[in-house]
Amino acid sequence: MRPKALVLGCAALATAVVLSGCGSDTASGGKTKLTIGLFGNFGYAELLKEYASTHPDVEITDRTASYSDHHKNLAAHLATSSGAADIEAVDTGYINQFKATPDKFVDFNTKGGGELKDRWLAWKWEASLSKDGKQIGYGTDIGGLAICYRRDLLQNAGLPADRDQVAALWPTWQDFMAAGKTFQAKAPEGVKWFDGGPTVLNAIVGQASTGYYDKTDKIVVGDNKEIKAGWDLVVDGVQSGLSSKLLYSTPVWNTGFKQGQFATVTCPAWQMAKIKDQAGPEAAGKWDVTSVPGGGGNWGGSYLTVPKAGKNVDKAVELAAWLTAPEQQAKVFKSAGLLPSIPKLYDDPSIVDYKNPYFNDAPIGKLFTDAAKKLNPQYQGPKAGDIQTAIGNAMQRVEQGKQNGEDSWRQFVGDVQK
Amino acid sequence: MVLIDKTARRHRWDTRFAPYGYVAPYFLIFGVFGLFPLLYTVWVSLQDRNLLESDAASLVWFDNYAKLMADPYFWNAMGNTLSLWLLTTVPQILFALFIAQLLNRKVRTRTLFRMGVILPNITSVAAVTIIFAQLFGRDFGLINWVLDLFGAGNIDWQAGTATSHIAIAVMVVWRWTGYHALIFLASMQAIPSTLYEAATLDGANGRQQFWRITVPLLRPQIIFSTIIATTGNMRLLAEPLLFNPGAAAATGGSDRQFQTAALYLYEQGFTNYDFGYSSAIAVVLAIATVIVAGLGYLVTKRIRTE
Amino acid sequence: MTAVLERPAPVRPAGPSTRARRLARRVAGPWTYAALIAILAGSAFPVYWSFVVSSQTPDAIDSVPPVLVPGGHLFENIARVFDTTDFALALMNSIVVAGTVTVSVVLFSTLAGFAFAKLKFRGRNVLLLLIIGTQAIPTELGIIPLYMMMSEFGWAGEIHAVIVPGLVTAFGVFFMRQYFERAIPDELLEAGRMDGCHSLRLFWHVALPAARPAAAVLGLFTFMQAWNDFFWPLVVLVPENPTVQTALSTLASGYTTDYTLVLTAATIGTVPVLAVFLLFGRQIVGGIMSGAVKG
Questions:
Q1: Taking the domains of chain B in order of start, what are their residue ranges?
Q2: pLDDT for A240-297, tens place per residue?
Q3: Which of A258, B82, B197, C75 is buried deepest, with most CB atoms within 10 A?
């Protein structure tokens, strides 16, 4: 006989009653509570503290989920008008899906967005503009491309480590793979040329003139020769043993950075924040950044949106505008490497001359502002994010030896056109 | 007189209606949040209904089922479900019998051992899967490291169909074997020793006694455990979902090699928000579970005393 | 499907006394002990290893050869979990959910179980059959309508959505009914009735005290099950208002770069059930052996 358990249970119930009694939307002291839903590293930790100190009436909580969970959940929360945060980040791969239902979001044009419009790159502004002219998102960063590489690993394999010489190794992706074969011949066991096929492929896709969709939102990837050529090239690289076969943004990929399992990784600007987090302080100075094969291209970049169902819409709009303002984007570039979507910063000396100490003092300011200026944005269709996941799965099938390149491609095209 | 009458009336009221008051809370809550959703699933499965599409749901009768029957990914998921059912249920029962047999001997510190075998059962499936996913890591997993000592390391557990099924089965078997072992143990303790003594006189050895006396006498418990295990193992979701973190977690591997039917239900229902289709999967899965449990019943029913 | 519930009673032999049987049981030899110790080690290892990683620096998790002894960084890692994630909220939510569900299930199951076992009323058998029949149906079957309902109520993302459907279980009612059938003699209740006791008073003064051992076992199982529940909370809750299990799922989904943190969180999340287990392990073992089946 154990009445203790019951006593325990009653205590728990009492706690439950007390606790549920104090849930409310405004924090104590009449503060407005704002939540902000993110994925990955936006570099906002310091900024949110700064904002809270200048706005004592606001209390901000941020939450981070994985890329895919974040967007899936947001879709459901909008559909049911419940559960969304006051500010929700949306990635380029999903912005078209969300701008198809502009009524779920606050139209920034009605909240003074028109005056701010000229802050942003014209294409960035347009990408989140709905067909009927509503602006659902303020642009945060763009995903200008580069390659991050391990100086020490390249050097040990007899390749140059200097970033200009490294860039000269790979004017094209074919050259990149050829350099990889040279590297692999001398690489120590367990170290590969690149992290995984999907990461490389996403960069190549991001450089193509047409992506997964044409401008009428029709899925055309099945007939896209540019992407198929990139696919074949990466498949060849994988089959030549150049890949660590780690899928980006998974725990094993994170470990790969720490363990130094690969020499290069495709580096959209936001990737630098991840590398720094994952490789840790002990790898400082080992990584460096140089230009991407093929030149130009974009992968990722985000927007901040304010769902209409929120309770503090005006305060949220104010915060979103502040976070995406030039001064803040400049700070985020320096702290986390996220490339601003603000063209006037591309000529700002404090940006252009910025060198990142973690990446062996790489002149990332120059490198990425150049990339941003060259960037010719590709049209993203409604489900570009889902298709990107599917093509990642497809490349993994090849890496895992489950299918050859042709079969896996066919299955991928069939899947996304269903 | 009045007083007695009043008491009698109260008594009558009490015996007649009070019992309904006692069972009412259960039936009220269960009716709204249990029974109603169950029945409503069938109705939703006859509709074209997507959470993300604002236009109202439309009745399409059996379209979802027709689509399901022609969907190779559904059959793939059902195949994986059956494979995992077999790989989890059979070892679970056999190991449980073996462990119960050990525990049934006269052991010192028996409470310690009994608690030990049940320990996996109280841990949470999320925590355990995260831990096992790490242990089954391709490059730095402990299991591959051990296998490597025997010259068989570097298995990419998530990549292969067989390897991923084995890894998931290990998690499930680890979690549930002890539970079934205790159920068997309770019954073993009630088997009269005279039966074994007689068998010993007839010259039957320990193994023969186990298969000819213990197992047949445990038949009701084995049937029971098989059915319980079947209903659990036909709806594995957390293990395949958390075994493969990343953007494509819900597909259960790059080629859906370990996507179970429950995971496919989750993918359709809560990543695509296709509620109609997902409900159809739920209904078919429930029917399949009943059939497989029936199958398990028929097989275990055949256990007989020699 | 009634077989699922009607847990068959152990064979009841009309043979020699328990004592005699026990004496006749085979005494465990060294091989039995070796096997049992190996099983014990296998049972405990994953939990132990998770604890080891939680007490080490982040390098330990993927070091070769693996680290197998605890280090001195446990509290540091725990502090990191609470600093960098909202795990405190997850723990609090799980305590509220599991606590409320436990009390409610025990209370309502005892009440209904008492009525089913000891009171006569029209439709009793039909209702009981309904309880038995529905217990075998997997909850996943109703998950989509349930989600639709919760959105309709505006409960999606709130812990009520997890608590309310868990307030009663068919198993609980059935379990308590079985117990009352055996534990309380009808004569006792009859005597109470003769004295003019209202049935609620009978419940309170006779049934409830007698039900305590069974209610405690039911409470233990319900608590652990509610604590470990995964699918429904995953579907209906949002990452910023999680239970321990959904918080773990979010943490493990790949955006966290520090896996030591994830395993430390897994360890922390296991501690409450582990504590219950160490305190009441004997009752849990006894409960399973006497038929306290979880569905």
A1: 2-44, 71-301
A2: 999 999 999 888 898 899 899 999 999 999 999 889 988 888 899 999 999 999 988 9
A3: A258
Distance to chain B for C4, nearest Cα, Å: 6
**Which residues in A lie closer than 8 A to residue C162 (C-beta atoms)?**
none
Determine contact: A252 vs chain C, CB below 8 A: no
- Chain C adjacent subunits, 3+ CB pairs under 8 A: A, B
- Interface membership of C127 toward B (CB under 8 Å): yes
Comparing CB atoms, the residue among B41, B126, B282 nearest residue C245 is: B126
Q: Are residues C42 and C135 in the same domain?
A: no
Do the Cβ atoms of A59 and A49 come closer than 8 Å?
no
For chain C, say whether B185 makes contact (Cβ under 8 Å): yes
Whether C141 and C103 map to the same domain: the answer is: yes
Looking at the 3D structure of chain C, how many domains does it have? Answer: 2
Instruction: Give the three-class secondary structure for A267.
Output: strand
State the Cα–Cα distance between residues C177 and C183, nearest whole angstrom.
Answer: 10
For the stretch C142-192, pLDDT in tens is: 999 999 999 888 888 899 999 999 999 999 999 999 899 888 888 888 887
Yes or no: say if A144 and A343 are a contact pair by the CB < 8 Å rule: no
- Chain C nearest-CA distance from B179, in A, is 7
The CATH number that applies at residue C225 is 1.10.3720.10
Neighbours of B83 (CB within 10 A): 17
Those of residues 169-208 in C touching chain B at CB distance below 8 A are: 170, 173, 193, 196, 198-200, 203
- The answer to whether A65 touches C252, Cβ cutoff 8 Å, is no
Judge if ipTM > 0.85. Answer: yes
Please indicate if any CB of chain C lies within 8 Å of the CB of A307: no
Q: Which domains does chain A have, with CATH numbers?
A: 28-142+301-347 (3.40.190.10), 143-298+355-416 (3.40.190.10)
- Could you say which of C21, C40, C72 is where a domain stops? C72
Could you tell me which CATH class the domain B71-301 is placed in? mainly alpha
Tell me the pTM: 0.91
Name the band, by pLDDT with cuts 50, 70 and 90, for residue A393.
very high
List pLDDT tens digits, range C125-153. 999 998 888 776 777 789 999 999 998 88
Tell me which chain A residues have a C-beta less than 8 angstroms from the C-beta of C254.
66, 249-251, 253-254
Place of tokens 């005056």: A115
Do A342 and A329 touch, CB atoms closer than 8 A? yes
pLDDT, chain A, mean: 90
